Amino acid sequence: MCLAVPGQIISIDDSDPDLKMARVKFGDAIRDVCIQWVEDLKPGDYIMAHVGTALSKVDEEDAVFTLESLRAMGEIDSDI
Amino acid sequence: MKYIDEYRDKLLVENLVREIRRETAREWTLMEICGGQTHSILKYGLHDLLPEQISLIHGPGCPVCVTSVEIIDRAAELGGNPKVILCSFGDMMRVPGTHSDLLSVRAKGGDIRIVYSPLDVLGIAEQNPEKEVVFLAVGFETTAPAVALAIHQASKRKLDNFSVLNSLVQVPPAVEALMRSDQNRIAGFLAAGHVCTVMGYQQYTKLSEKYKIPIVVTGFEPVDILFGILGAIRMLEHNGYGVENAYGRSVRPEGNLAARELLQKIFVNEDRKWRGIGTIPDSGFLLAPGYERFDAEIRFQLNLIESEDSELCMAGEILTGHKKPSECRAFGIDCSPEHPLGAPMVSSEGVCSAYYRYTRVTAVHQK
Question: Which CATH superfamily is domain B65-170+255-300 in?
């Protein structure tokens, strides 16, 4: 129940400044998600969403860096 | 799906397992806090990939599991009230109370609705002004902001027929309770990544320093979990401790400040009873002064119900990591997902349900 799922923003509705919403794509499903607490979002960005609210913006730089480090772990091994 | 599939990559799993094996020289017991992590570990067989010196024990991070039987009984009473529409996450429907569960109450005519988000409940309240609409709010710090948002919106929209049966709890006081236990053998923790996405991990720095244990903020996919284990083992093998973030794509050190600000506005801390474990000081969220009118326990005066847990169920020892589900006499015989005695067999994050679904263990008395 504490799972948050990555989803990609399709569109943003900020007509209510106290309840900003977005249409978000999760795989094949599309849902409305409140994005009130996450700043600087635009269509195409990925968020972590939980029970209809966005908890964070996915940090793409960190994701790429971590994956590259873990891949490199294997390359170092094969060099040895 | 992007940001999920890459973290199930076989090559990365192999790299991490090799690195963990190389780093591990001594015996260590680690606890993963969150039931979602427990399910990943068992689903992907990660425990079988680790060196035998590493034991994983499963923590109390399943909100459905730790919701007290009193709350389930009160929800069942409210669900049977013809003036009430009770809204709940689907996971709660089959959790056994003293005499009944919500699914049975609904089968007898109770208007009990499964919702995806607490915000959905506001719409139900607006569409049914003649009814009292109650949300059964279970969850940790991950879920609490969404409940706070629903309460904030209900207040703003002057929704007088909306209230919350509140069983929201907080992780750090439970970590502290586990560390204080005489039977504690935990050398390090994998902290729950989505709780930390909201709260950050500064609270854990204090715990790490106080008990001199490594705490690694960890995600939920196989690569995430092994990365968290590697971080904890590296610290332990070098006689170190501290807090590391192995889930940086979601978690910032300070968490989500706007969500935390709303939590501080809507809730205050209170002592809370955890099912099978007992009362943990300051581990609950109570509606703050000014918002008590949204508290279903006050609105319906529900405090007088006498509740009892199953005598056969040993959920408390399992939720604190002292026993494995296979050591329970009822596991797989008197207790199964179809006929659960306790919440850990019901929830999609429950440890007994994970063992039942993903392992071939038999209960000790069956051997």
Answer: HypD, alpha/beta domain 2 (3.40.50.11740)
* pLDDT of res. A76: 62
Report the C-alpha gap between B5 and B13 in whole angstroms: 12
**What is the Cα–Cα distance from B342 to A27, expressed in whole angstroms?**
33
Half-sphere exposure of B327 (CA within 13 A, CB side): 10
| Residue among A13, A66, A4, A6 nearest A36 (CA) | A13
Distance from the A63 Cα atom to the nearest Cα atom in chain B, whole angstroms: 5
Q: In angstroms, rounded to a whole number, what is the distance separating the alpha carbons of residues B345 and B298?
A: 31
B222 interface with A at CB cutoff 8 Å: no
Who contacts B163 (Cβ-Cβ below 8 Å, separation ≥6)?
Answer: B132, B133, B134, B135, B293, B294, B295, B296, B299, B300
* B313-352 per-position pLDDT tens digit: 888 888 888 888 989 989 998 898 888 888 899 887 889 9
The residue of chain A nearest to residue B63, with distances taken between CA atoms, is A1
Q: List the CATH number of the domain containing A46.
A: 2.30.30.140
Query: Considering only CB atoms, which chain A residues are within 8 Å of B3?
Result: 6, 46, 58, 63
Q: For B237, how many CA atoms within 13 A lie in the half-sphere containing its CB?
A: 17
H/E run at residue B146:
helix B144-156
Judged against a pLDDT cut of 60, whether residue B17 lies above it is answered with yes
Domain that holds residue A44: 5-76
CB < 8 Å from A in window 124-153 of B: 138-140, 142-143, 145-146, 149, 153
**ipTM > 0.90 for the complex:** yes
**β-sheet with B242-245: strand ranges across:** B54-61, B28-34, B188-192, B214-218, B242-245
Give strand pairing partners of A50. Answer: A53
* pTM of the entire predicted model: 0.94
Indicate left, alpha or beta for A30 from its phi (over 0: left) and psi (-120 to 50: alpha). beta
Tell me the DSSP string of B154-201.
Answer: HHHTT-TTEEEEEEEB-HHHHHHHHHHSTT----EEEEEHHHHHHH-S
Residue A30 touches chain B, beta carbons under 8 Å: no
Q: Which of B16, B143, B198 sits opposite A70 (nearest CB)?
A: B16
**Number of structural domains chain A divides into:** 1
Ranges of each domain in chain B: 65-170+255-300
Among B1, B2, B12, which residue's Cα sits nearest to residue B222?
Answer: B12
The predicted structure's pLDDT at residue B131: 98
Residues B247 and B83: their CA atoms lie apart, in Å, by 45
